[in-house]
Amino acid sequence: VGKSWLALSAAVSLATAWPLFSYYEVRRSYRVAFLDLESRPWETDQRLHRIAAGMGATAEALGDHVQVIRRRLRLDAPDDLRRLMASLESWKTDFLIVDSFRRAFRGNENDSGIVSDIFTATLDRLRLDLGVGTILLDHTRKTTGEPDLDSPDQSLRGSTDKRNMVDFHLGIEARTGGLALTPTKTRHGRKPEPVVLELAGLDGEDHEGPVLVKFSRHADPASDRVADAVLVLLGDAGDAGLLRGEIIGRSGFKERTVGAALRDLKARGRITRQTEGHAVRYRVEK
Asked: Which end of the chain is more exposed for a tag (fewer CB within 10 A), N or C?
């Protein structure tokens, strides 16, 4: 849904002391290493260039503060770990961003022992021996159609130790007009409120222009991913709208889940409801 854009935006913010997502204070400039295990080399470079431009900086200005590691390292391979730690230490790294966690080790991600070892034998060493903080990107499992099971604090793929052992966890999901960031856990201080971010510059035809990931609004507690999915479907349908059965079929969510979202959207004045015989048609309120 755009997690790599958010991670690279965070890297540039930390490197330049630009407010994170143009909203959260960054107190000083940090040195950030980005372990790229997902993208093609030119793709990461292009994205860094576009994000830097969005913040009024140049990609060249990041050279002393952002290091992209392209070697396919494994955190559970001793030789790879030694090389990584030597590089991070010599470069005086403050933060390591790993994209993505699943590609950084072998073995079953559902095995709590394997996952726990990554944290205790690897990430704790980076923190304790080198003072390097780690930001991990990971994936969610397939949706079930049940809001409780698909919530950000339950949808992380693999062993629950992934979430249990981190200091801070947030879920990222597509919302109408942007990406919702929902903090689900923090060990230090009060848990921040969910927010919606806008990825300005990605919607146009210019595929090389500036991109700025910025705060858009606080997330509406009354809204959820089901309601937003319904709004997207109805928006695409235009004036014709969609029948209730069509919304259920196209959304992939269960009937009662869609029904609850439709009632919520109707109560908030976001959609209109029209009876057609035994069927009901919904449209976006204009």
From this structure: C
Distance of CA 101 to CAs 79, 134, 136, Å?
A: 18, 11, 6
Which amino acid makes up residue 243? L
Q: What is the pLDDT of residues 63-96, one digit of tens each?
A: 889 999 999 999 999 999 999 999 999 999 999 9
pTM across the whole model: 0.80
Distance CA 212, CA 198 (A): 8
Contacts of 102 (CB under 8 A, 6+ apart): 109, 138, 139, 157, 158
Q: Which residues contact 79 (CB under 8 A, 6 or more apart)?
A: none
Separation between Cα atoms, residue 86 and residue 230, nearest integer Å = 50
| Structure tokens given for 143 | 């949706």
**What is the DSSP pairing of strand 32-36 with strand 95-99?**
parallel
CA distances in angstroms from 37 to 30, 74, 199, listed in the order given: 22, 10, 22
